[in-house]
Amino acid sequence: AQSVTQLDSQVPVFEEAPVELRCNYSSSVSVYLFWYVQYPNQGLQLLLKYLSGSTLVESINGFEAEFNKSQTSFHLRKPSVHISDTAEYFCAVSLSGGYNKLIFGAGTRLAVHP
Amino acid sequence: GAGVSQSPRYKVAKRGQDVALRCDPISGHVSLFWYQQALGQGPEFLTYFQNEAQLDKSGLPSDRFFAERPEGSVSTLKIQRTQQEDSAVYLCASRKGSLWDTDTQYFGPGTRLTVL
Lengths: 114, 116
Known about the structure:
The complex is a heterodimer of chains A (114) and B (116).
Chain A (H helix, E strand, L loop, with lengths): L2 E4 L3 E5 L4 E3 L1 E4 L4 E8 L5 E7 L5 E3 L5 E5 L4 E6 L8 E9 L7 E2 L3 E6 L1
Parallel strand pairs in A: 2-12
Antiparallel strand pairs in A: 1-4, 3-9, 5-6, 5-10, 7-8, 8-9, 10-11, 10-12
Chain B lengths: L4 E3 L2 E4 L5 E6 L6 E7 L6 E7 L2 E4 L8 E4 L6 E5 L8 E8 L10 E2 L3 E5 L1
């Protein structure tokens, strides 16, 4: 069975500081990896995903994540956060070759302070 | 175009009542998923439809939960004889492609169910 662990339930950070949200997964087969973001009072939105190829993937708003197969990790990073990045971030996996139901971690609440 | 919509957005039910939650996926999307998100947790898979066919219902927590998508578009999640542990946000997601597709799942805003 697959599982996802998000190591931090809450991450407080000051505006313009760098941030890393950690995600580790467990799976005996190949997986796809995702980060979803949930802004207050909004639905889940895809931030970025890794399917294959380059292990470093980027989003349009400055986030990036690197797939590390040996460490079974997919940590999310941003070099300089904004107040508007305050949200809940969910890491998820799906089995490659299946119909791709998502298995989510418990989420990390990122709180950016001025 | 319009995204995934869900109704009602909020539902309060007395224990033992039946409820029906509706999902309108993005038009033309073949795949539809239901997830349950308990307070402070990540979403958990409930069931998957490809068009009108329910291909996986392994995540439904009990036989009180039933989902359908009779015409391959709108889907309804029904919970019979609701219990307090059913209180959660129920999320619907749709995807353009079918079984092996890796396209994005688009989520609706969810229905928050509170069972008193």
